[in-house]
Amino acid sequence: MLLQAPRTSLADSAADSIRAEIAAGRWTVGSRIPIEPQLAQLLGVSRGTVREAVKTLVSRGLLEVRQGSGTYVRSGFDPSASLQKMRRASLRDQFEVRRALEVEAARLAAVRHTAKDLRNLNSLLNKRGVPDASDGGAGFIERDLAFHLAIVDISGNLALAETCRFIAGYIKETIASTMGTSLPEPDTAAHTAIVEAIASRDPDRAAEAVRAFMSPMIDALAQDAEPVR
User: Fold this and answer.
1) How far, in Å, CA of 84 to CA of 33, rounded?
2) From CA 161, how far away is CA 182, in angstroms rounded?
3) Tens of pLDDT along 19-72?
4) Residue 72 forms beta bridges with which residues?
5) Cα separation, 74 vs 71, whole angstroms
6) Phi–psi pair at 73, nearest 5 degrees
């Protein structure tokens, strides 16, 4: 029998209890979990609380509700746990991961792009413009993110594209960190160099363009991290 959920944060506790059953392998991927009344009895909570807990786990990709059939285990992996850990990563860590992903994306994009892809990249680069503080920079950040995600899409690697979208919030943080701070902001020329390198169909040149793009920010953060002697 499942452990009874405590009185505080009932929906969260109920979700944790369901997640624990999945992690322990008692409810496997593809299996149907107990129906709402049974879950409520097992957890010692109301059906409304169960409903809220299930809704939370559906939004996190662990459960799937099939109309007229029931609720099924969709995945044994909870991405929210990974996101929580990533929040503790330093800005330098985030830039280094972003560089690793975008270097490989550019390498693949150089080999796999089409003429239409290049037109789209140039269009996104033109729309990107320059940082604008009128809206707190939110519009610029979204435009800059769209440009970089387009390169990832051109790579043709779905796993790489989904990984970058999974950490899109952290990519936005790296973009925002160069606005109004001492960190160097890559200018339009640095972005154009990446597009031209991809267009050359030389994967090594494309990879080097991304490294040159990222290096000033990472080097600056490395200097800040050095202990004062």
Assistant:
1) 26
2) 30
3) 888 888 889 989 999 999 999 999 999 999 999 999 988 887 889 999 889 999
4) 32, 64
5) 9
6) -75, 120
